[in-house]
Design a protein that fits this description.
The complex is a heterodimer of chains A (111) and B (115). Chain A is mainly beta. Chain A has strands at 9-12, 18-23, 35-40, 47-50, 64-69, 72-77, 86-93, 100-102, 106-110. Chain A is globular and about 40 Å long. In chain B, strands 2-10-9-4-5-6 form a six-stranded mixed β-sheet, with no helix packed on it. The chains are: A mainly beta (111), B mainly beta (115).
Chain lengths: 111, 115
């Protein structure tokens, strides 16, 4: 099972919007509505930002949103803030034999 | 409060063994599948292994198949990972994670494989 494909880095200025893509296949992202997104600051554990494609856990800002089109999922962060600077990982269900697959991660820089 | 607390990491020589534990609290542990995910230093997240609620279904990443064994004790609300024949490339922070209720992850436990 190959990892999902994410851009290595994205950047944006405060107040802007950015989108991070997560490309899989018809065996994972394209087949299930089970994509999740995690934010990770240096030295910290990953924090769930989006689950089941577009749902936000309690306490996560509505500036974070998720979507999917075909085999590609996306995380959009609007109104970029300095504290959004972190690594972001996508994850998808991939079927019973290899249940979960992660993306390689995207480093978000807030300029 | 929902919590997942990993323990058991440490320094081990190549070829050695280690057993990780994950103590769960604040939810009905026995109802949910559980997973181990790891992160090598400076690298991304990697799914390692999954176990169903009743231990009927168990899956491993190819990178650990035949060397790692996942198990759980629902009476003790605990998840385990027995790691044998450890290699340098197994060096990572190991997290236990749940992907149905989408519970917060613990802080992880660091495993260092080095001579």
């Amino acid at each position: 099972q190959s990892a999902l494909t994410q851009p290595a880095s994205v950047s944006g200025s405060p107040g802007q919007s950015i989108t991070i893509s997560c490309t899989g296949t018809s065996s994972d992202v394209g087949s299930y509505n089970l994509v999740s997104w995690y934010q990770q600051h240096p030295g910290k554990a990953p924090k769930l930002m989006i689950y089941e494609g577009s749902k936000r856990p309690s306490g996560v800002s509505n500036r974070f949103s998720g979507s999917k089109s075909g085999n590609t999922a996306s995380l959009t962060i609007s109104g970029l803030q300095a504290e959004d600077e972190a690594d972001y990982y996508c994850c998808s269900y991939a079927g019973s034999s290899t249940p979960w697959v992660f993306g390689g991660g995207t480093k978000l820089t807030v300029l | 409060e929902v919590q997942l607390v990993e323990s058991g990491g440490g320094l081990v020589k190549p070829g050695g063994s280690l057993r990780l534990s994950c103590a769960a609290s604040g939810f009905t542990f026995s109802s949910y599948s559980m997973n181990w995910v790891r992160q090598a230093p400076g690298k991304g997240l990697e799914w390692v292994s999954s176990i169903s609620s009743s231990s009927s279904y168990i899956y491993y990443a190819d990178s650990v198949k035949g060397r790692f064994t996942i198990s759980r004790d629902n009476a003790k609300n605990s998840l385990y990972l027995q790691m044998n024949s450890l290699r340098a490339e197994d060096t990572a922070v190991y997290y236990c994670a749940e992907f149905e209720r989408w519970l917060p992850w613990g802080q992880g436990t660091l495993v260092t494989v080095s001579s």
